[in-house]
Write a structure and sequence with these properties.
Strand content: 5-15%
Strand order of the largest sheet: 5-4-6-7-8
Distance between the termini: 112 Å
Order of helices and strands: HEEEHEHEHHEHEEHH
Structural class: alpha/beta
Number of helices: 8
Radius of gyration: 38 Å
Length: about 300
């Protein structure tokens, strides 16, 4: 369970400020509390409930050991998202969204591997054998790849979920995730369409204070899920050990019982031996009787 969200804290962070009334999306009407000075005010009680719901879902995903990709390319959100994603040990995109990041993930992985191969070249000394011009070109390529894809270098497969700041700006990422049925968690302002998102958090996605409040809560929920996973691992190992010991205890008993109970084949063999003995004894007694009778006749 994620931590409880306090409405007062959201109010202090300015999460309730929406966009100008003329720029609103009618689908956000259920989450709007009122209008003041030509600006829509978001209902913070609904924001708190949705944050709690999103936090619980993200904690479960993190507890299962899967990755959650953070996406925020707007200036005021870049540093906040990068910092919080690193705290939660999750991949993030804060530069330009690379087209086909999800739908063409194989190509993106090749680019990440290229970065790793350049690092190997520098370690094994092959980089020094290149000419000065070639070294400059390789360095530039490495810097470019690091800037765009360095934050997802540990992501070996598609993420289990996406967390997005400003769905209108990150519409390409949203569409790619929808194609692949990847759950989308997002901060949704009054000018965005909430139907594009699986778990929305109605909030101000322009102010850095508001972004910081929501993203830090999300990161804390993920960290909580990861800590649950770590605490569950030793318990599972103990259970596995106990079950193995029980099986090993049961196995010798079963073999002993099998050894004590003779099989049908063994019983049949014994009966055959006894029958043969009886036949032999009978034949011996018959020969003795014949010998006696012949002696008497003589």
């Amino acid at each position: 369970m994620a931590n409880k969200v306090e409405v007062k804290e959201l109010l202090d962070a300015g999460v309730h400020f929406g966009h100008l009334t003329r720029r609103w999306n009618p689908n956000m009407a259920p989450y709007i509390y009122m209008e003041r000075n030509g600006i829509h005010i978001i209902n913070l009680y609904k924001s708190a409930a949705k944050m709690q719901e999103a936090g619980d879902a993200l904690a479960k995903i993190a507890a299962s050991g899967r990755k959650i990709l953070f996406v925020a390319t707007k200036k005021q959100a870049k540093e906040i998202v990068a910092e919080q994603a690193e705290k939660a040990n999750m991949p993030y995109i804060t530069e330009r969204w690379p087209g086909g990041m999800l739908t063409n993930f194989v190509t993106i992985r090749k680019a990440v591997k290229k970065m790793a191969s350049i690092d190997r070249m520098k370690k094994d000394g092959t980089f020094n054998s290149l000419s000065k011009k070639e070294r400059l070109q390789v360095d530039r390529l490495r810097a470019k790849l690091e800037k765009n894809l360095g934050s997802i270098s540990d992501m070996s497969r598609l993420p289990a979920a996406l967390f997005v700041v400003d769905t209108t700006r990150e519409h390409i990422a949203i569409k790619e995730a929808q194609k692949l049925n990847i759950p989308i968690f997002a901060m949704v302002d009054t000018n965005s369409d909430p139907r594009e998102v699986d778990y929305l958090i109605p909030s101000n996605d322009d102010a850095s204070k508001s972004i910081s409040k929501v993203v830090s809560y999300v990161a804390d929920s993920i960290v909580e899920g990861l800590s649950e996973r770590k605490s569950d691992k030793p318990a599972k190992k103990k259970e596995e050990k106990a079950s193995k010991e029980e099986k090993s205890d049961k196995a010798p008993k079963a073999t002993k019982e099998k050894a004590e109970v003779p099989s049908k084949d063994a019983e049949d063999k014994k009966a055959m031996k006894e029958a043969k003995k009886d036949v032999k004894l009978e034949s011996k007694s018959e020969t003795l009787d014949k010998a006696k009778s012949s002696n008497e006749e003589e």
